[in-house]
Amino acid sequence: MSDDRVRVGLLGCGNVGAPLAALVRRRADDIAIRTGARLEIARVAVRSPAKDRGIELDSGVLTHDAAAVVDDPDIDVVVELIGGIEPARELILAAIKAGKPVVTANKELLANVGAELFAAAEDAGVDLLFEAAVGGGIPFIRPLRESLAGEEIRRIMGIVNGTTNYILTRMTEAGVSYADALSEAQNLGYAERDPTADVEGFDAGAKAAIIASIAFGSRVVAGDVYHEGISGITTADIDYARKMGYVVKLLAIAERTNGELGVRVHPAMVPAAHPLASVRDSFNAVFVEGDAVGELMFYGRGAGGYPTASAVLGDLVDAAVNRRKGSHASIGALSKATIRPIDEVETAYYLNLDVVDRPGVLAAVAGVFGRHGVSIRSMEQEGLGDEARLVFITHLAREAAVQATLRDLNHLDAVDRITSALRVIGTE
Ligand SMILES: NC(=O)c1ccc[n+]([C@@H]2O[C@H](COP(=O)([O-])OP(=O)(O)OC[C@H]3O[C@@H](n4cnc5c(N)ncnc54)[C@H](OP(=O)(O)O)[C@@H]3O)[C@@H](O)[C@H]2O)c1
Asked: Does the reported pTM lie above 0.85?
């Protein structure tokens, strides 16, 4: 056997692991010619070794004992594609301790205990690479970490959850209700039977924590991220947004303001001409605003077996090459983050109110905005019989001030209902 072999221990062979094993087999010769490292899936740990995985694996490669794969002295690099916190965390720490580079796609793990794992990898001087953990197949972490290492990043906004983007696209383009769009997404396999993690913004929140950590060199965990999902969005919200020239998207936003980090996930109205507005179906995109570079957008498949396996394979090649050179990538020291509470975050809002059509109502409504220091950027009025509809877009305002305005408007006799209240981006 030649000594250019890099023996990979694969932990997990499911939606991503199986395509990865197939890709390594298919691409090993080309990768060896280009890099001098010949990747070989030497051992694979799964829960049920007897299950058919639809891929070719050498006999005796499968085992149910993931710890034995990590400990095997013949294994050079470990790829963790099990998911969840434990046993993934323990297995990764054991691999790092044994001096083995690790590649993972596990956003949940990194968003919760990433700092511990990065510190362990740094101490041991090995790679811990995770391109696929955010944006699936979109190469975005490496550009952020390397190409943009010197850039002063102001803000990153991402559509990082394909399920919710699919649902919002169907609501926007076909006018279907949230419930029907969700059930379509479930039938297509985009959404789980229990869709909470996607539709309530937990998944995007974990990714936002990882993005913020890398972009701003700070320790941000999933619990630091404010999140709202899309289950309250109606086709009426989407229609109002369209009339005003906007598209509704679920955004993960990380921004630095006066040394504090605001990291949040919520639906927002995006101007139709903004690059993020054109990201349809289950596609993902990450939009970066930097001081010197200006605006950049990374676009592609944010999930799916082969796209995600492609990103894992890129990391695997990197880890193999670094190992041969005796070097490793580093995300550098992560400082403690000062998180800006959502109440302090400033955003523009779109508000749509049905009010009684009588003299003095507009002044009363405007008075509520004024009392809370929320300044109005534009206002339109439509007659609706005895009622009138007032549509406001505010200037940037503190979240707490807008919420107080909404509470007071709800108590105003002349206001029948607040039909829509959505944050707006692109007005700054
Ligand atoms: N799927 C995507 O599109 C996607 C996109 C981006 C990131 N990711 C991330 O990639 C990772 C893997 O996701 P996936 O969709 O491939 O998951 P999956 O289809 O559920 O596969 C998980 C694999 O882990 C194995 N496994 C579970 N517990 C184990 C244990 N204790 N020891 C050994 N093996 C164990 C399972 O074995 P059995 O097959 O025998 O059950 C299965 O092969 C997750 O962190 C996920 O967040 C996935």
From this structure: yes
